[in-house]
Amino acid sequence: MNSNFKLLFLLLLTSTTFIGQSKSDEWHLMANSRENYFGVAIANGQIGIVTDDTPLKTKEIILNGVYEGSPENGISRIVRGIEFLNLHLNIDGQEIKSDNISNWNQVVAMKEGTSTTTFSFKDLANINYTILANRAVPYSAMAIVEITPNKDIEILANNYMIVPDELKEAKSQFRVLKDNQYLMPVFGTTAKTLNEKYTVSAATTFLFDGTSEELKHTGNEVGFTKKLLKGKKYRFAIAGGICTSKDFTDPLNESERQPIYALQQGIDNLLSRHKQAWAELWKTGDIQIEGDLDAQQRVRFALYNLYSYIRPETRQSIAPMGLSSQGYNGHIFWDSELWMYPTLLALQPDMAKSCLDYRSDRLQKAKQKASIYGYKGAMYPWESDDTGEEATPTWALTGIFEQHITADVAIAFWNYYALTQDKSWLRSEFKVLKETADFWVSRVVKNTDGSYSILNVVGADEYAQHVDDNAFTNASAIEALKNTIKAATILNEPIDPKWKDVSEKLVIHRENGITQNYKGYKGQIIKQADVNLLAYPLHIITDKVQIEKDLDYYAEKIDKKDGPAMASGVLSVLYSRLGDREKAYEYFVKSYLPNSRPPFGVFSESANSNNPYFATGAGAMLQAVIYGFGGVEQTDMGLKYNKGLLPKQWKSLKIIGLGVDNKTITVE
Predict the structure, then answer these.
(1) What architecture (CATH level 2) is domain 34-255+273-282?
(2) Any idea where the Glycoside hydrolase family 65 central catalytic domain is (predicted)?
């Protein structure tokens, strides 16, 4: 362990579990400090609601799969939605604000997918505010408010909506709909995205326990007044939803149906269905660590975030920051296939399949990109949005030259078949493997000795641009080609002889016994793991001695200041498989601890950045647990369960819900 990391490790280890936390347990992350606050995305795979430290307010809402051109550079960016759960609350004529509350506390309940903020308002009342993006009803969300008066009080509660700057032409309306004896008050706001690509509509209503209160529309707010008695708890909720013209021909009417549905369901029924949907996820995919509460919390928090950012059968994938922000414009990178997908494949195959559906739907655009640059087959974009066209900023060379993404996609497709052994699915998706294989044989150049090279690329190590024979690019192409040959054999499809020739003769350079990052590499600092990926998750380097040499050499080459979190997760897997318990654990801790931000320990991309939540890093950390300590191995015949390696700091490790048969393994 290097001295700088050891110091940081000791400093954080001697603090509370997470900075600003107290009384947390394996399912609850509790914050009691608002200093340097980084919120959590309370998400359901369709909408992400980011928590704030300001009472009764959310920070922002992110809409999955909805993109519009950004004003800064014109490229697409995931859209922020209308914030529809915000509340202005007055007690005895005094408005609750950020600076006039006390005893602030916030709890993220990972098991139930909720965030609850508790605070006191002067000597008048104690207030709980719980938000959730309903896991069972994907376009809906709810905020539940509980007020316990310390004396007789009168409250004025008004729901208001915030329209972000990137939306325009916002219009609000309040109306009371009637069907026989049912009165249904609905408050809504509709706006256009910046270039009018989409219409965004949000609508809400109030839910009450018992008798409904009369709602009044004042300005751009809708609410009610109520006298409360000392000591008698009072509960109400704001419930509604948000829809866009991406998914609905008439988003305005569909958004209004969300609060109408909520009115007929009621608070408890909506909450129960939401909790049950989360319970099913944990039942079919969980990781339990005995003897190390800190590791348990962080691993489960990583799982919680991955599960929050995707839904099965939606044909959507996951961006690096999930639904927590507009980071990286919400685009889809290799982060999905290489870093997040392996965890989902092991624990939630239906979620993993959605990532593949996303790529399959955009195969024609990948074929178009290949043809644009004079290649055959399919060339997937480095950054992808809803269109499937290249969405990388034009100034970034990665958009044209970081081409290993095409192999990463193909490998993910093969691994899904390997897990499920579903030949009918493989037949339906074989075109992805074939077209990407055709790209690689058109991309290589033949050397005078009969070998092949791939020239002028940006590799996984993005510090090295315009290099030849990048190790990971070449190796991932080899593995993708070999997988395509296997698939063609299973399906009795024609095998292009070029696939075999290139897969056997594409060069991986070595010098002085070390696999070279690229041809002519001279030991420069690298951004992240590149060569080490050839041993895991790829299967190109299998010799233990070679793996050890490459580990020893490149572990010290990775940028310790600005390198992203993923490298440490991969190194942890490799050290686990080599049987080095101490180094495996060291790199496991290093994969998350320097990147944790207060008060909940949300992931940042690097030790030196503040851009949480970095789902990519969470995926790498989880791979260290599943495919490292857990001994799980992806093979062509499905998951293989090796002995595993338990860190001495843990008493046991249990992984629940592995593979298509929901297997549970325990490492003791």
Answers:
(1) Distorted Sandwich (2.70)
(2) 300-521
Separation CA 325–CA 78 (nearest Å): 9
**Which residues have a Cβ under 8 Å from the Cβ of 70 and sit 6 or more positions away?**
76, 77, 166, 194, 329
Tokens 């495919």, residue located: 627
Percent of the chain with pLDDT over 70: 97
CB half-sphere exposure, 353, CA atoms < 13 A: 16
For 287-302, the pLDDT digits (tens) are: 999 999 999 999 999 9
Phi (first) and psi of residue 654, to 5 degrees: -125, 130
| CA distance linking residue 251 with residue 228, whole number of Å | 37
Q: What is the CATH number of domain 362-551?
A: 1.50.10.10
**Inter-residue contact 477 to 510 (CB < 8 Å):** no
Query: How many degrees, rounded to 5, is the angle at CA 624 between CA 518 and CA 662?
Result: 125
- Report the C-alpha gap between 194 and 620 in whole angstroms: 35
- The model's pLDDT over 457-495, given as tens digits with 9 standing for 90+, comes to 999 999 999 999 999 999 999 999 999 999 999 999 999
Burial letters 538-559, b for 16+ CB under 10 A, else e = bbbbeeeebbebbbebbbebbb
Q: Which residues pair with 216 in a beta bridge?
A: 223
The full set of domain ranges for the chain reads: 1-23+285-327+559-668, 34-255+273-282, 362-551
Q: Which stretch of DSSP H or E encloses residue 640? A: strand 638-641
Q: For the residues 244-255, what does the mean pLDDT come to?
A: 98
| Residue matched to tokens 């993993």 | 352
Does the structure show a pLDDT above 60 at 11? no
- Concerning whether 35 is annotated as a catalytic residue, the answer is no
Tell me which H or E stretch contains 617: helix 615-623
CB of 479 closer than 8 Å to CB of 407: yes
Q: Is 462 a catalytic residue?
A: yes
Q: Are 556 and 528 in contact (CB under 8 A)?
A: no
**Are 351 and 311 in contact, with CB atoms under 8 Å apart?**
yes
Which residues, other chains included, contact 330 with Cβ-Cβ below 8 Å and sequence gap of 6+?
62, 67, 77, 78, 319, 321, 385
C-alpha distance from residue 156 to each of 92, 218, 238, 562 (Å): 8, 12, 14, 49
CB atoms under 10 Å from CB of 651, counted, come to 12
Unique residue bearing structure tokens 């090295």: 464
For residue 139, give every residue at least 6 positions away whose Cβ sits within 8 Å of its Cβ, in sequence order, or none. 46, 47, 241, 242, 243, 247, 254, 255, 258
164: buried, middle or exposed (CB in 10 Å: 19+, 13-18, 0-12)? middle
Cis-peptide into 149, omega within 30 deg: no
User: Residue 193: is its pLDDT beyond 70?
Assistant: yes
Residue 600 has pLDDT above 60, yes or no: yes
Non-local CB neighbours of 437 within 8 Å, separated by 6+ positions:
377, 410, 480, 481, 484, 496, 499
Q: For the chain, give percent helix, strand, coil, nearest 5.
A: 35, 30, 40
**Both structure tokens of 396:** 């970034």
Annotated catalytic residue, options 26, 146, 290, 462: 462
Which residues, including other chains, have CB under 8 Å from residue 434's CB and lie 6 or more apart?
A: 377, 484, 488, 493
Beta strand 234-244 pairing with 199-208: antiparallel
Pairing of strands 663-667, 216-218: unpaired
Give this prediction's pTM: 0.95
β-sheet bridge partners, residue 225: 156
